[in-house]
Design brief:
- With about 400 residues, the protein is an all-alpha fold.
- It has one domain: Up-down Bundle (Na+/H+ antiporter like fold), CATH 1.20.1530.10.
- It has 16 helices and two strands.
- Strand 1 and strand 2 form a beta hairpin.
- Helix 7 runs parallel beside helix 9 and helix 8 packs antiparallel against helix 9.
- The protein is globular, with a radius of gyration of 21 Å.
- The two termini are about 30 Å apart.
Amino acid sequence: MREQQSAGAARRLVRPLQEFLATETAGGVLLLAAAAAAIAWANAPFGDTYFDFWAARISINLGAIAIDEALVSWVNDALMAVFFFVVGLEIKRELTRGELAERRKAALPTIAAIGGMLAPALIFLSINLGGDGERGWGIPMATDIAFAVGVLTLAGARVPLSLKVFLLALAIVDDLGAIAVIALFYTDDLALPWLAAAIALFAMTYVLARLGVRHIFIFAAIGLVAWLAVYESGIHATIAGVMMGLLIPSGDSGGEASVLTRLEHLLHPWTSFVIVPIFALANAGIVLDGGIARDAASSPVSLGVALGLMLGKPIGIVLFAFAAVKLGVASLPDGVRWPQVAAVGMVAGIGFTVSLFITPLAFSDTGLVDEAKLGVLAGSTLIGVAGLVALWLLPSASGDR
């Protein structure tokens, strides 16, 4: 009986993970197609229409609040707030029920993720410190979960589930770090009354969750107002999505799935198949003429981003993970060997979505933005292919055991 209960519990834990990985894999394919479409559109004979389309102004007047932004800004500020809300839900799930819930299991991906954020930033700064591109140090810090999981899926049986879980946990900690970087370092002016209103709304969400409120529409209404407050405060509006995701109730109630589970199942396909591809379509378009390519080849910004992703990510992840294991604060997952950790460190260098997201926050100069985007595209592509080749050259999962 106990064995049956244990097996049932294991299935309840593994099934959501498998569904998540399947969605991320398919979403990664669509994301790649959207990025390719953006580059093709921007470089077509009618390429001006790409930039004119995303620069179109859209205004909303709510009386006391008036928002006038380009279409690309609505995508980055509003649609991506939903994406970061789902990221917040994923972080909450991992912290309460997943790989980050147990200190011993959480230690390795957490420490590895810290190394995978610090090393790229240091490599970028070593090239750009004191230059015009200095503010871009946060760009190569991120890992794109969809692309990274997609690469692991292409490697097939050579990647044990424990290695996929390690990458997933690492990428989620990485997302948390990227969110902190955006909030702390890419916020210029603060409107304190609006910030206080946002904090009050987050506090209200926490209290309602503690009181047992489980109505999705109540949290959705508070989240919308919180987004407006954060937007007006000067902090990037997507932070509201993350905060709401972290505050959503995660406990089951009366035999019904938790609010967190219901929202994740509802929104995750939308973010993977609609929102993130739209983001890629709006942000990945770069004119690849000879002049820009030559400038990027000699640009410290492009070089810093590309090397940060290609070298900083795998070196930082492996060194910090190795130190954690040798110091006895963590252990390798079952069936995982150091060559596999190194290969996953390479795959984690795919920094597409969040790296592109941070780029316009770091730079206002369009030339620097384009150079950084080229660094993201080149670095992510090269290290992704290298990581896939490395995984293919390793023995299969069964061979490791």
